[in-house]
Amino acid sequence: MAIISQFSFYVNAHSQELRGKFVSHTGKVELTVVYETGDRFTVSMADFTSKITGLMEQNIVDEGLRQWILPSFTTTTEDDVVAASIVMMGTLQAYFEYGPQICCGIPSVTLLGEKEDYEEMLRRVERLCEYGEEPAEFCKGLVPVLTGMVRTFEEGEERKEVKRFWETICDYQGGSGMDHYSGWVTAFCFWDDKGKRIKRFWENNAVDGKDIPGGFSKVPLKIDDNGEEIDAKMLVGSVAIVCSSSGKMSVAAPDYSLGYGTERKEMVGLDSMQPQIGWFVYENEAALGPIYDWRAAYRQLLEDRRLRSFLRNSSDEGRAEAVNTLST
């Protein structure tokens, strides 16, 4: 490290004289590593510096420079390689500009089922148009979404149009006490649970976060349980999120308990989410009577314990008073 640091000082002091030794371009070439998810706290500097020096190797005249600078000794650790990579970046900073570009978004999407399933859904939503003006408009918003899913099967995720489709699934804008969401996911937010059309904002059809409806329905039931009539309801819909692991290595968020910016190593963890469809049957709230106040009951229990303790440690007169209190 001491040797390459010294060399870095020299190169930076004579960058124009030595330009031809390192690069053939004029000015500075911008080298960027794109991360499709995460933030500045979760980007792995080990990954970033490795990729940057790889890009540098493609843009310098001396193909062996990277191998010459980066250590590969028997005692070399990952931290040693990262440190040397940063020194290499600093050595050639007169010829390059560096930076990670972190994009918010979904790193990957898995469409379950087959192309024919989505084509069938596309055919079925057309029937909505038979039920009135609003259902027809609802259908109009769903068609491009389902068409985009069909195209994902047909053209593959690497096609520019397909990637753009998934990049526009959802966008968040906050301010003035409101959280607005836009993107094609709002096509599934046309009515609230009362059947009233949800208000849209601006030209991008944004929806206020508090107006996003639940993805479930309720059905009233009258259950005859061996002669006992029970008022109940059935709830069905997207009731949970299932987290699972793809088995791929990923970088965990930094562990700040070990010091600011300290990164955890790559690991296999929960990195995938999938909506869970389910249903419940529960007794109607009105049939249960007054809602039991657990806090009040707990306070009463504590008070009773204090009184019983008082009974054990007080005079006969005090016991009589405590008994009257308990009975009331």
From TrEMBL:
UniProt cross-references to Pfam families, sorted A to Z: DUF4419 (PF14388)
InterPro entries cross-referenced by the UniProt entry: DUF4419
* PANTHER family with a match to the protein in the record: DUF4419 DOMAIN-CONTAINING PROTEIN
What's this protein's name? DUF4419 domain-containing protein
